[in-house]
């Protein structure tokens, strides 16, 4: 088996004058959980649809499990579990009938496997799909993606509509898939679930890749939010123009600022006064990723 599950090179998709995806180049390693993050409309679903040949790129190439999504579509789809962001099936069927039908299309899935996943996700197999809530329909989509133990799981916003307990069950299933050697490519705009599940993360904004790294390394490159308290008011000019210090504000005896890079210049400036308190926080993932969302698009 190749060490690379997905390889994208210069992948671009335009819709007339409208941008879908611009010059996307990245690799997903076999056996990893890969988080694909971005706000709605960033290009996540466009990327996924090109991986499956549901739409075709304007330029660039994609290789999935070593195959061409267009020329080798039939073979490739047998080896993939896919959950669309807008999962839709015939509402007249019962959930169990639907999942059995979809399993038979794949050559047969043991009924015990479907039952096991339904019990874990608390899905009633006797209910008709048209009667299900959005969250329960999403459970049907998850089961059909996982039930045949695919080499590659491609999941577009997989926890949409799920309650927190079921979200945790889903994350457990992702962890089990990774331990079994499966690859998981998971798009999301929910930062906490990606932090809990992913080995590496790509962040996409306005159709362009703006970051690609492990969550830990993204954190290491992030900034500090600092609050320093003193025993008396301090002059602001003692702290202006310090390297890496931005957003400086001093109110009474409290200084707050953001520090990008080493905090040593700020600490030395503060040490010229009597410090009564010091608090420094790295941003949570939500705030960290929003620094990429709100910044100017990169050409990475």
> How many separate domains make up the residues?
2
Total helical segments: 10
Series of H and E elements: EEEHEHEHHHEHEHEEHEEEHEH
Report the end-to-end length measured between terminal Cα atoms: 29 Å
Structural class: alpha/beta
Q: What low-confidence regions span 5 or more consecutive residues with pLDDT below 50?
A: 296-300
Architecture of the largest domain, according to CATH? 3-Layer(aba) Sandwich
- Cα radius of gyration in angstroms: 24 Å
CATH class of the largest domain: Alpha Beta
Mean pLDDT: 89
Q: Using the alpha-carbon principal axes, give the shape.
A: elongated
Name of the CATH homologous superfamily of the largest domain = P-loop containing nucleotide triphosphate hydrolases
- Taken as a percent bin, the fraction of beta residues is 25-35%
The count of DSSP E runs of length 2 or more, i.e. the number of strands, is 13
Which key terms come to mind for this protein?
single chain; 300 residues; alpha/beta; Rossmann fold; 6-stranded mixed beta sheet; 4-stranded antiparallel beta sheet; 10 helices; 13 strands; 32% helix; disordered C terminus
């Amino acid at each position: 088996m190749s060490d690379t599950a997905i390889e994208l090179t210069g992948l671009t998709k335009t819709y007339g004058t409208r941008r879908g995806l611009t010059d996307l180049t990245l690799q997903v390693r076999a056996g990893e959980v890969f988080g694909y993050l971005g706000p709605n409309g960033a290009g996540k679903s466009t990327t996924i649809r090109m991986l499956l040949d549901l739409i075709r790129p304007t330029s660039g190439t994609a290789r999935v499990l070593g195959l061409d999504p267009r020329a080798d579509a039939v073979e490739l789809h047998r080896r993939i579990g896919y959950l669309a962001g807008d999962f839709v099936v015939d509402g007249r069927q019962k959930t169990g009938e639907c999942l059995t039908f979809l399993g038979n299309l794949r050559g047969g899935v043991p009924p015990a496997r479907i039952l096991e996943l339904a019990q874990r996700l608390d899905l009633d197999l006797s209910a008709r799909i048209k009667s299900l809530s959005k969250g329960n329909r999403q459970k049907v989509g998850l089961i059909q993606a996982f039930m045949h133990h695919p080499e590659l799981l491609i999941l577009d916003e997989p926890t949409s509509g799920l309650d927190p307990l079921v979200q945790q069950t889903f994350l457990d299933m992702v962890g089990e898939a990774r331990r079994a050697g499966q690859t998981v490519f998971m798009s999301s705009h929910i930062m906490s679930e990606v932090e809990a599940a992913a080995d590496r993360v790509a962040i996409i904004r306005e159709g362009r890749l703006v970051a690609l790294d492990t969550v830990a390394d993204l954190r290491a490159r992030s900034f500090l939010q600092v609050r320093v308290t003193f025993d008396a008011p301090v002059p602001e000019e003692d702290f202006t123009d310090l390297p890496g210090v931005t957003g400086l504000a001093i109110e009474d005896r409290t200084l707050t600022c953001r520090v990008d890079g080493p905090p040593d210049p700020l600490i030395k400036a503060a040490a010229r006064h009597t410090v009564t308190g010091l608090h420094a926080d790295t941003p949570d993932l939500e705030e960290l990723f929003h620094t990429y969302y709100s910044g100017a698009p990169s050409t990475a």
